[in-house]
Design a protein that fits this description.
Shape: globular
Number of strands: 17
Structural class: alpha+beta
Helix content: 25-40%
Radius of gyration: 24 Å
Strand order of the largest sheet: 2-3-1-9-8-10
Length: 568
Amino acid sequence: MTVFAGVISLSNEPPSSQLLTDVRKQFAVLCNQKATFEQQKSNTLILQCDVQAYDNVTTLQSELHTTVIAGEPLLRNSYRTSLHDDVTQLHQAGADNNLSKILKTARGVFSGIHVDEAANRIQLFSDKLGIRPVFYYQKDNIIVFSSLFSLFKYLPQLDLKTDFTGLCEYLAFNYCLADRTQYQFIKRIDVGQILNIEKGTVKTSQYWNWADIQAKSEALAIDIEQLYKSFEDAIKLRLNDSNEAIAFLSGGLDSRAIAASLKQHVKTLYTFNFSTHQSQDREYARVFAKSAQIDHHEKVFESLSFPNWTQLIADATDESAATGKIKSNQRLVWSGDGGSVALGYVYIEDVMLDALDKDNNKYAIDLFMAMAQTFVPKSFFKSKYVQLSKGVIEASILDELPELHFGKTRSMYYFLMNNDQKRHLSLHFETICQHKTELHLPFFDSDFLQNIYGFPAKEMMYHKLYMQWFEYFPKCARQTPWQTYPKHVPCPIKNTLSLSYQWDKSTTNHQNRKQDFSEYLALRKNRYIQEFFNSQKLMIAMVLHRIGVKDYSYLIDKLKRLKVLVHN
């Protein structure tokens, strides 16, 4: 199942017929088709749209119970069982009021809803990292829920009042933290969380907490070997005896690890690369694929600036299948998302760990914000919002640093895993009904991650433990060069070619100043910009940018984030 949405009344009064009509209509528009499943009771509407990437049943109904699942929970521990078996287990657990216990055993990326009419109970839930999104609007005894965030802006009955903290976080990170969104009455199901709606009351509960995992004093060889075995297990479990696979292949390590593992278990592996001319990303992917005897395909672009990667691979596989270059119509693609943060410890540096070790969380946060260039452009706010925005981001990050009883230097890692990672695939999930493609995400496998969370932070830094783990992979994975992060463990194979480097700022394609100014003129009437920003200061800055006196490209990048927001 791909996406779902619906309406719940918390009172004895049913939802308004107009709201139900609008939800049905807009859900169908966003899905490009009518709902493949609909259930309406006196106070509840559930809609589902399935693009059938998983060729299996994802909805179950019995006399008094309904279960709808998006994604793949992976409750099973056998390669011979299926997604239908997972849904059956969740359905029975919901009927037995035992959902929390069964969710603790899940390994996959998923979300869902269970309705128990006998107990007048509805439960919405997401996976252990909250990767698969579920949003819900709650006000005036009405809940509207959806795995598509864009649904809410098409419903005029909803109060889309701004959450100022959420707005500041969105400007700073390009996502909001914890369960917040940019709107006061819209939340997101958080990490390992269940939203319980029972007899008119709404409460959240945690079925999983990563902070409960105890840190090891050191990483032993046997621990790293077990980490490799758990990754292999994650690969095989998702393959489910399939003899072919389609995967992204960049010039980096994460997609290479997946491709090298897949190559051992499938008869046919198709890989796709999307990059620019004379880049390490393209060249390193190509030479590895040749060495590993992988059926490799590539698309070369003049520039790439945060594209919809899943749409690119969906179009490329369709084109390759139509021209006979590949013999597969799968809508399941393997992706290395999550590897660089989960196992490579990117965005974290030694000085941050030293600060955390000394209980100086504020200094660690300051270091992180400077390194990640995370900030709110508050100097361009209207005066009344300048004061309100001071310290907002620092306080938000501090709230998200767990109080670890052991291994407190890992708290910044928890922050990234619980926030950055669950928003990382937002565009993929929001456009899933267009590209009709699901991703296999083994780096987000919960059993694999459970092993990682136990390692000491110092040994994870700068891809150090990653490279020890990588030694367990087939030799072909290490015989050709790969792209590495600045300051991280370098590739031992030297590159003799003149190739562009992904993190070299000198090779970044900055937007044309004239184009930036045109973008600003188109944006300046945006309700959020008019409400929160000082129009005079913005105009002066953008004129200076246009004529080349000062670079304000960062400002237009922040303002462009507001294009997707709406304001009633």
